[in-house]
Design brief:
Elements (H helix, E strand, L loop, with lengths): L82 H7 L1 H12 L5 H14 L1 H8 L4 H12 L6 H17 L8 H12 L1 H11 L7 H4 L3 H8 L4 H10 L2 H10 L2 H12 L6 H19 L8 H8 L4 H14 L1 H11 L10 H9 L3 H8 L4 H11 L1 H14 L4 H20 L15
Helix pairs in contact: 1-2, 2-5, 3-4, 3-5, 3-6, 7-8, 10-12, 11-13, 15-17, 16-17, 18-20, 19-21, 20-21
């Protein structure tokens, strides 16, 4: 049964190797419309035959003889030891580097820097360098310079410093890094997607770098005074081994609280972690530099001033048993002379009666005004006027004598408290009205 030619597929082009019984090749091709007839185009203009930059001593194009490249004399206003002087002396290298920059297709900002460079070098030096460029580099360099309206000092210093680096390397050093990767990604997939890809693929320096350098026994005292949530966040960013050993150093109650918070931590924004890291490491640098107290009698005294009297007594008794001198140092800074102003009115009245007027005049001579006003309120105007006159007639006194009397008054306050005749206010004092 013969096949109908019109029912068979038509194969255009090369049909070699196809069995003749499988297909019927139609003697047909699509017609070309008259509009597509080729129209002769004018020949392109001849490309200028300009030589590439030549090194000193390279063979000449004419005869192949070796002859050094003759440089123009350096202008007197261009110091030889300046960057512009070095560019002039290394014009061949500078021209090759600049040519790489202006013909760069990977980063348009490089061409902008090339224009900034030529403007910053000045007419004499820039024109000397441009003599070393080929035709197309001259065109690109001219375009780059023409696009520059003004160059601020910061951009000029940045571009000149970078070009000096390239000149010392005798080539255009192409820098990579995170910023370069970001620019490539933004051009390839857009800014939004580039950010997510970069954050997922480029690993930054671990957070809390300084804290990671410390042994757990030093980390624990440093963070133990922080809020448990802060401690949990910090430990979650440390190496598991270091975090576990640090957790083991914490008090039992704090361990439980921190462990629970770590287990229930959710996503934390990088901005929060960065802010916390900066705060922690700034404090750590202060401590390592000896600029901040993290212990000592004053720190313990401040804590005991806010505790219950029974807790205070237990701690002080333990200090007395182990180191009586240390216990006394803590007592001396626990309740200062200025803290007398925090006593209740009736308690302050008891203390006022415990010392004669002459000693009060001496003790209050170097005191702050708020304390003087509190004592004045307890004494009454008549006694206060008499006391003020005594202070005026005392004249200059050695500070150590005044402080010794103030310490004796503080000791008397503690004696009266022990005797139950007055009460030292624990915690933050309430304001008086």
């Amino acid at each position: 049964m013969s096949a109908n030619v019109n029912d068979q597929p038509r194969i255009l082009g090369n049909t070699s190797g196809l069995p003749a019984t499988d297909v019927v090749v139609a003697d047909w091709s699509p017609p070309l419309p008259q509009a597509l007839d080729p129209v002769p185009l004018p020949p392109p203009p001849p490309r200028p035959l300009l030589a590439s930059p030549r090194r000193a001593g390279s063979a000449s194009a004419a005869g192949g003889a070796s002859s050094p490249t003759v440089s123009s004399p350096r202008p007197s206003h261009v110091p030889s030891d300046s960057l512009r002087g070095r560019v002039w002396a290394q014009a061949e290298d500078a021209g090759r580097i600049l040519q790489d920059m202006v013909l760069s297709v990977c980063d348009p900002s490089v061409k902008v820097d090339a224009g900034t460079l030529l403007v910053s070098l000045g007419e004499d030096v820039a024109s000397e360098v441009m003599k070393k460029l080929n035709y197309w580099a001259v065109v690109e360099a001219t375009t780059a310079v023409a696009s520059i309206r003004e160059v601020d000092a910061e951009d000029e210093q940045r571009v000149l410093a970078a070009f000096d680096e390239h000149l010392q390397a005798r080539q255009w050093v192409r820098h990579g890094g995170r910023e370069y990767a970001r620019r490539l990604l933004e051009r390839a997939v857009g800014r939004s997607k580039a950010t997510s890809i970069l954050e997922a693929s480029v690993e930054e320096e671990p957070r809390f770098h300084l804290l990671r350098q410390l042994p757990p026994r030093d980390v624990a005292p440093f963070i133990t005074h922080e809020h448990p949530q802060t401690v949990a966040l910090i430990l979650s960013q440390l190496d598991p081994t270091q975090a576990a050993a640090t957790l083991d150093q914490l008090a039992e109650d704090l361990q439980k609280d921190v462990a629970y918070r770590i287990a229930t931590l959710e996503n934390v924004t990088p901005a929060v972690l960065k802010s916390m890291e900066e705060g922690v490491e700034a404090m750590l640098r202060d401590i390592l530099g000896g600029e901040q107290d993290v212990g000592g009698p004053k720190v313990l005294a401040d804590m005991l001033n806010l505790t219950r009297s029974t807790t205070e007594q237990v701690v002080l008794d333990a200090l007395d048993a182990g180191d009586a001198t240390l216990g006394e140092r803590v007592r001396n800074v626990m309740f200062t002379f200025e803290d007398i102003g925090n006593l209740a009115g009736k308690d302050l009245a008891v203390l006022v009666e415990a010392f004669p007027q002459d000693e009060w005049a001496m003790a209050l001579k170097a005191a702050e005004e708020p304390l003087k006003e509190r004592v004045r309120g307890v004494m009454g105007e008549e006694r206060w006027d008499e006391l003020r006159e005594r202070m005026e007639f005392l004249g200059p006194m050695r500070l150590r004598d005044v402080e010794a009397l103030q310490i004796r008054m503080v000791h008397r306050v503690r004696e009266l408290e022990t005797a139950g005749e007055l009460t030292i206010v624990r915690g933050m004092p309430d304001p008086y009205v």
